[in-house]
Amino acid sequence: MTNLRKPILLVSVAVIVGVLGFEYLRLLKPAQAREAKAACRGLRPTTPNKAMGPLPARAPDFSAQDHTGKMVSLSDYRGKVVVVRFWGSWCETCKAEQPSLEAFAREMDDQDLIVLAPSSDDSWEPISKKLSGGSHTVVLLDPPGDEAIGPVAAAYGVGKVPETFIIDRQGIVRYYLVNKRDWRSSVTNTCIRSLLDE
Length: 198
Fold this sequence. Notes:
Elements: H1 2-41, E1 57-58, E2 63-66, E3 71-73, E4 81-86, H2 92-108, E5 113-119, H3 124-130, E6 137-141, H4 151-155, E7 163-167, E8 172-178, H5 186-197
Parallel strand pairs: 4-5, 5-6
Antiparallel strand pairs: 1-8, 2-3, 2-6, 4-7, 7-8
């Protein structure tokens, strides 16, 4: 009888551990979803974008030139999460935000994430001095006309830079950010990771 107690005890412990593990995993996913939802709530604009209205909304496709002269379109990146950040080399706030955006792109290091950075500048000379880019950042030229903002930025309803639009894998603008942001914050990372996991 005593020889039988030990296996029964081990089986009982294994069943209890299995049930507790299953319950933990069952509760973990909703907790992660709640955390992502709360993080993303912080990325919602307080006023609707004038060009798109309330979000979510389809992202206007655009084409702009990269530093090699190649035309790059937003639609080239369908299936990826795209961060479109409008900026200008003359923008002091953009300069202050830039290091955290570059660090964010390096830290995320995900092949399904790309940062498109259309700059409202007349030429590449001032851009190349301000933005190092990187493997996940594609810098684009969006030369302004009569205004300080280029036509791609204007199509997105951008009035002042920096403004950033976060676009999901289906080409839908889910969030947009006015002014600078600390891209290394856990809130931003959690929200964008949730889009990558969709």
